[in-house]
Amino acid sequence: MSLSLRKLLQNPSLHLNLIVGGEEGTTDEQALDRDFEWLHATDMVDPTPFLGPAEVILTLGWQFPVTEAADPAIPEVRVSPARLDRVYEDYVALVAAHGVIGIGFGSDVLHRGVPHPLAQACRRHGLILFEVPYEISFMDILQEASRVLQRDQTERYGRSLRAQKAIANAATRRDGLSATLRETARQLGCGVALYDPLGHPVIVIDAPDGRRLSEPKLTAIVQETLAGGQRFRSAQVTTEVEAILQLLGEPGEPSGMLVLTLSQAFDDVSRNVLSSVLALVSVSLEQNQALERLHSTLRDALLQLVLSGNVGVTSHIVESVWRPLPQVPLVTVIGVPRDVETARVLPALEALQLQEDLGIFFAQYRGDLAVLAHERDADRVIAHLETFPLTLGRSRCDRWEGLALALDEAKKAAEFGMRRESAGVTAFPDIWREGVSDLIDSSEAAHVARRLLGPVTAHDAEHGAELLTTLRVWLGHHGRPLPAARELGVHRHTLGVRLQQISVLTGTDLEDFQVRAELALALRYLQG
What we know:
49% of the residues lie in helices and 17% in strands. With 528 residues, it is α+β, with helices and mostly antiparallel strands.
């Protein structure tokens, strides 16, 4: 714990007199705000082995030549001005290099007043110099410093207790978590934000002094910290604002992240209060997570209840617990998680539903995320969902009886988007834009194509034949021999022989329309 020079130098009972305010350009007011660890009374020529950093020296000046004695009984010495300046210069340079911030000189005991060369040396080296009058002993100063420390400690302890009590009282309110964070911001004078495990903001409270940090910038820092698995991080975001990030839970399974945005450094009181806040927030999050697990189970059951046709009962329960169930026509969205469990996404959607006036209902459906949204809210809901690690598919439901079909369609759309690595959301009508064949998984189709047409390609390679080209041209002419033979530049009997070879090699009947369709698809994916 440090002491403030202001509390000593402005104490009317000590009559201390500031002579040098430290570095050149430093005002007396700035000098008074300097903190130090303790005062050390010494007249040693080199006291540094016995000093800690940031201390103040109290001295009567026995280590300096007495050129102007305070009492006739004290013998004076003659020293050249240059030599005298060097003595003071060497002493002040020595203690300044050690970290001493100031010197209190006892005047009119040994030296008359405060030696002028000492003041000049202190000014050159940025040391504070103050005069201790004859009637004030160093013991008086040390005792007062001890009393100041005790008063400060008592005041800090009381302030810490008051702040912790206020925050603890806030935690008992109905909106305990939000109230706790709001009170934390007020008590610590900083911005406070709570993020979910995926790095999405849940609660954001600006600093009371109005200094704000843009949410996108803060969110980027949080997501980077979560991705790195860091438990604690301090980041200087702007020249005025520092962000303190504290992981809640374990790195492998975080329950969230608490972020404080500060415009000034924390003191001991603030650190003690923060420890209490972390404990309260952790407990609140554990309670919320237990409630969220119950909500998740209830949501899953309610979705199954809707699918079974009990819309009225479901609507009543949903409105009693959350908000009204969105009404048809609905947009159904299936989100297939990427590198994250569906359960990790649900808390963020809970927070989204509280923050935004959105008509939605969501639950887990066959391991994926299912979201039901009213048509008017669909675009806003999808815009929020696109910030999550999900591959999205959407469909439409005009009647509750068609909900199961709409969910299946949205699932197929999401799977199509995964195969195509599509960005954004895939609508079910979009998946046959290039024809029904576009629904086929290209990787699996290519494997089947190689298996079916492999004997033909092998025969061509071994005999220098053109059976594969023949098949492609013949199918391109819808199985008509004359146009195909003309394009190939062969006789129609030669074409017939080639087709017979292809039939044998593939083990198929080329007169069968289904076989021709499969061969056409195989040719398409064999090329791909």
